[in-house]
Write a structure and sequence with these properties.
InterPro entries: CPA3_Na-H_Antiporter_D, NADH_UbQ_OxRdtase, ND/Mrp_TM
Shape: globular
Mean pLDDT: 89
Oligomer: single chain
Largest sheet: 3 strands, mixed
Low-confidence stretches: 284-288, 530-535
Radius of gyration: 22 Å
Strand content: under 5%
Protein name: Complex I subunit 5 family protein
Subcellular location: Cell membrane
Pfam families: Proton_antipo_M (PF00361)
Keywords: Cell membrane, Membrane, Transmembrane, Transmembrane helix
Structural class: mainly alpha
Order of helices and strands: HHEEHHHHHHHHHHHHHHHHHHHHE
C-alpha cells in the first residue's frame, strides 16, 4: 500500500510556506495562497486520519525518506496518537489563518507573517510525525524559530522583552536537549525511537549491560525538562504570560492551542512509547511504586508529573484570578489548564492496570483537544475585542453582551468549555480526569483537580462580570467588532458544542490514540519491520 499520505501534511505546510514567501509582494494573492494552503493542510491531515483510521483498525504506518530504512534513515510515523494531535491542530490552524486575514494589518501580513505562520506549522507537523529523537529536536527548532519572530511581531519594548525571555529560555532548552540526545546516542547507539525502545527494553540482547543503560534515566530527565519547558509546565512556566500577551491574537491562539501540545505529545510519545518498557534497577522515590507489568523508568516520572501538574494548576489558577486584562487571564489560565492535561498522565505512569493507563492517556488527549479549541477561541475573542474597542483591560470594558452579543456568546462558550459544563467537550475532559484519579483512589489528585476547577470558575466568572456584563462605557459603545473575526469565534464555539454532542467519536479516537501510545510492540514492528514507503 502506498504510504505517501504520511508525509502529505508536512509537504503541504512546507510548500505553502514557500509559496507565501514568494508572493509576499502581492497582498491579496499571498493571503489567498495562505488560506488555500490552510485548507489543503486540513485536507492532507484528513487523508492521513482516514488511512490510519483511529476509529477502526488503528494501524501504524511508517514512511522512510529516500528509501533509507530505519533505524539508519529519517523516518516519519503516523498512528492514532499523531493523527489525533494533527486533526485538531489542523482545524485550529485554519481558524487562526482566517482570523489573521482580517486581524493583522496589510503591512504586518506583508512582512512575512504568513510564511512564518506556515513554517511554524511545518515544525508542529514534523514534531507529531517524526520517528527519531534527533529530528524531534530539528522540528522543535523549525517551530520555535518561527514563533520567536511572531512573538516579537509588533516590535514594541514590551514585546521585545517578552521575546527575549522566550528566545533565551528556549535556546537553553535546545542546548540541554542536544546534550541529552548526544548522551542517548553514546549510551544506546541509536536515536530512532522504535530502535531505542527495543534496546532499552532488552539491553542485554544489544550488548548493553545494566551499568551502560543506567545513564538513560538521567538523560531522560534532561529531555523531560525540555519537554516541560515547551509545554509551559511549572516550574518552567514563567515565559508563558509575557509571550502570550505580546504576540498577535491568532499567534497566541496557536501557541496556547497547538504549540504547547507539542511538548505534551513529546512526553507521551517518548516516555509512554519509547521508554515504556525500560526496566532500570535501583530507581526509587518516596511513595513511588512500580506496577507488576509496568516500567521502572516510566513509573519514576509518575510523582514528578503529579507535582508539576499540581503546581501548574495552582500557580496558573491563582495567577489568572488576579489579572486585570483578558490576555493576562488567558495566559495564566493556560498554565493551569496544561496541568489538567498532565495530571491524568501522572496517574497513567504508575497505574496498576492497562485499563487505567489507557484511561489516563485518553483523558489527557481529550482535555488537550478541548483546551486546544477553547483557548484558541478565547484568545481570538480577546483579539476581536481589542480590534473593536482598542483595549482588553477589564477597567475599560463592560457591557459587551449588549454591543457584541455574538462575540460575547462565543467567549461564554469557550469559558464554559474550560470550566467543564455539559454538554460541551470540556465537561467530558474534566470528567475523565476525575474518573482516572478516582479509579486509583488518589485523593491528592482529586483534591488538586477540584481546587483547580474552583479556580477556573472564579477567574472566568470575574472575566465575564467585568468584561462582558453590565452597562457599556463610551469606549465600548463606539466599538464595532468585525464580522469576519466574530464569525471565526462563533465557528469555534459551534465546533466545541458539536464535539460535546458527538463525544462518542472523540472518545473512541482518544482511546485509539492512548492504545497507540502504549502499544510499544506494534510501533516497533511498524517502523523496523516491513512498514515504510519510499520517497
Amino acid at each position: 500500500m502506498s504510504q505517501q499520505f504520511v508525509v502529505a501534511p508536512l509537504l503541504v505546510a512546507l510548500l505553502t510556506a514557500i509559496a507565501t514567501l514568494l508572493t509576499r509582494r502581492f497582498d491579496r494573492v499571498q493571503v489567498s495562497v495562505s488560506l488555500l494552503g490552510g485548507l489543503g493542510y486540513l485536507g492532507a491531515v484528513a487523508w492521513l486520519v482516514s488511512n490510519v483510521d483511529p476509529l477502526g483498525t488503528a494501524d501504524v504506518f511508517s514512511y522512510q525518506l529516500s528509501g533509507w530504512q530505519a533505524p539508519f534513515g529519517i523516518t516519519l510515523v503516523a498512528d492514532s496518537l499523531s493523527a489525533f494531535m494533527l486533526a485538531f491542530s489542523a482545524v485550529v490552524a485554519l481558524a487562526a489563518l482566517v482570523f489573521s486575514a482580517s486581524y493583522v494589518d496589510t503591512y504586518g501580513q506583508r512582512v512575512s507573517y504568513h510564511p512564518l505562520f506556515h513554517f511554524m506549522l511545518v515544525g508542529v507537523t514534523g514534531s507529531f510525525l517524526t520517528g527519531d529523537i534527533f529530528n524531534l529536536f530539528v522540528w522543535f527548532e523549525v517551530m520555535l524559530m518561527s514563533s520567536y519572530v511572531l512573538v516579537v511581531f509588533y516590535s514594541g519594548p514590551e514585546h521585545t522583552r517578552a521575546a527575549l525571555h522566550y528566545v533565551v529560555l528556549n535556546l537553553v532548552g535546545s542546548a540541554v536537549m542536544l546534550l541529552a540526545i548526544g548522551g542517548l546516542y553514546a549510551t544506546t547507539g541509536t536515536l530512532n525511537m522504535a530502535d531505542l525502545s527495543r534496546r532499552v527494553a532488552d539491553p542485554a540482547a544489544y550488548g548493553l549491560g545494566g551499568g551502560e543503560i543506567a545513564p538513560v534515566l538521567g538523560l531522560s530527565a534532561l529531555l523531560f525538562a525540555v519537554f516541560a519547558l515547551k509545554a509551559g509546565l511549572a516550574p518552567f512556566q514563567f515565559w508563558v504570560p509575557a509571550a502570550y500577551r505580546a504576540a498577535p491574537a491568532p499567534v497566541s491562539a496557536m501557541l496556547a492551542g497547538v504549540v504547547k501540545k507539542v511538548g505534551v505529545y513529546a512526553i507521551i510519545r517518548v516516555y509512554f512509547t519509547v521508554f515504556g518498557a525500560a526496566a532500570l534497577s535501583g530507581v526509587s522515590l518516596p511513595g513511588f511504586a512500580v506496577p507488576d507489568d509496568g516500567s521502572a523508568l516510566l513509573a519514576f516520572y509518575g510523582p514528578v508529573l503529579f507535582v508539576m501538574a499540581a503546581a501548574s494548576i495552582i500557580v496558573g489558577g491563582v495567577g489568572a484570578v488576579g489579572r486585570d486584562d483578558i490576555d493576562g487571564l488567558l495566559a495564566y489560565s493556560s498554565i493551569g489548564q496544561v496541568g489538567f492535561i498532565v495530571l491524568p498522565l501522572a496517574i497513567a505512569a504508575t497505574a496498576p492496570t492497562e485499563e487505567i493507563r489507557v484511561l489516563g492517556v485518553a483523558a489527557a488527549l481529550v482535555y488537550a483537544l478541548n483546551h486546544g479549541f477553547a483557548k484558541s477561541l478565547l484568545f481570538m475573542a480577546s483579539g476581536a475585542v481589542y480590534d473593536a474597542v482598542g483595549t482588553e483591560q477589564f477597567p475599560d470594558l463592560g457591557g459587551l453582551t449588549e454591543t457584541a452579543p455574538w462575540l460575547s456568546g462565543g467567549f461564554f462558550v469557550g469559558a464554559l468549555a474550560l470550566i467543564g459544563i455539559p454538554p460541551l467537550s470540556g465537561f467530558f475532559g474534566k470528567m475523565l480526569v476525575f474518573d482516572a484519579a478516582g479509579r486509583v483512589e488518589s485523593w491528592p489528585a482529586l483534591g488538586v483537580a477540584l481546587f483547580g476547577a474552583i479556580l477556573t470558575i472564579a477567574y472566568f466568572s470575574r472575566a465575564w462580570t467585568r468584561g462582558f456584563w453590565g452597562d457599556p462605557p463610551l469606549l465600548v459603545q463606539h466599538g464595532e467588532a468585525k464580522f469576519s473575526l466574530v464569525a471565526v469565534v462563533v465557528a469555534l464555539a459551534l465546533a466545541i458544542a458539536v464535539l460535546g454532542v458527538g463525544f462518542d467519536v472523540v472518545m473512541r479516537a482518544a482511546e485509539a490514540g492512548a492504545h497507540a501510545a502504549l502499544d510499544r510492540q506494534e510501533y516497533v514492528e511498524a517502523v523496523l519491520g516491513n512498514g515504510g514507503g519510499h520517497a
